[in-house]
Amino acid sequence: MTAPRRHALYTVAQVRALDRRAIDVLGIPAGELMRRAAAAAFASLRRHWPDARRIAVYCGPGNNGGDGYLLALLAHEAGLAAEAWALSDEAVGEDAARARAACEQGGVPVLRWDGTSSLPRVDVHVDALYGTGLNRPPQPVAAALIERINVCGAPVLSLDVPSGLNADTGHCPGAAICARLTVSFIAAKRGLHTGQAAAHAGRIELATLDLPESLWQEQPDAHLLEPATLPPRPRDAHKGRNGHVLAIGGEHGTAGAIRLCGEAALRGGAGLVSVATRHEHLPALNAARPELMAHAVDGPQALEPLLARATVLAVGPGLGQGAWGHALWLTALESPLPLVLDADGLNLLATETRRFDDARQVVLTPHPGEAARLLGCSVDDVERDRFAAVRALAQRFGAVAVLKGTGSLVADPDGRLDVCPWGNPGMASGGMGDLLTGLVAALLAQGCPARDAARLGVGLHARAGDLAAREGERGMVASDLLVPLRLLLNGWEA
After folding, report:
1. pTM, entire model
2. Which Pfam families match (predicted)?
3. Cα–Cα separations (whole angstroms), residue 347 to 23, 251, 303, 342, 413
């Protein structure tokens, strides 16, 4: 498997087309693909659980079940105690039927799951119930089996996709397997890398089934981000070459939000960082972080001279939606400067929608709630298809859009999309978004185009969160990311 293939993400329709091409154009029989998939999954099982002596394989009626039957046969032939549990009396499709027959003829017991049976005591459960095609809740009998597997305590290996998870979107419309390991076949499915998938897929391995590179002719739908940072600075660098970020926000009582944004811009490498905020916040900002140039701004007229000196704007952290915040927001949006818009900057945009000029570098960084307000839909609608939501945001507003959350997504107005593979639950705390806003603004200030600033900023932010989480996820706060962020920006790798 080549390195680029590991980072290419495909839709279910694209994977089906690849499968069809392998059969029709390359002349590889469907049964042979099934055998390769079973062999790859069994090899992963032995690597991860070398001491396993007893396994149970739960097989649906389709080709995913066929993979499972053949894996059970391989386990039996290798000396493991293996049994297969079927959801139905017959397999659907010739290849799945042949796989089931081979399993039975090879001496593996095939038992019928009727919803009342007890789970066998095994070392590993193998999930081969549903493949990539499921986009509805599992049937009640299958759902009951899934729920029992999830609470049994033994590890689970899922074949291709954890059953119950939508492989296109990462959404679970009903019960879904919580796997310790998922072995995905032929190509990486995009839905395994965002949203609810993080709680269900476990570790993900890709088995391309020894298919030749000539199979992949169309562009993937999305890509996983790869570790990256900025190049070293030239030895004659000075602050004037690294941009001037103006962070605008901090309504009464929210000095912390704008401070985190400004400090992230400093740690992100901006040469200068100014803060436009309420007068009451100046003493605290000057005492805590004197490198921030804090200014009392009571309205647009006071903001104008700061705009004249800035090269990039970061607008929204602690801004509020009152008269003060709205006036500063309008003034910032009328400026031609590159812009990162977050928090109340996005909430105001939801009430006064506008599309940004194509020539302006703009990055929007909503969480699902803010995205729902911007799109005029519910949070559930956003989470049901995060890919569609982030693309709609980018196209509607003419900006690079970041949809935050597990498996954050970055989309261009032209539809290009990247998925962040890093981050952890410890980052689900206040202030993390303020950091990202300042970091992306700092990258824009140092010359990154909007798409690159968003991709690099999202990746660095999440990787810094993972480094900070080495001391524990629970109790981690946003400022814990600042030191790891600086290390990553300077080429330090964990």
Report:
1. 0.95
2. Carb_kinase, YjeF_N
3. 50, 15, 21, 8, 20
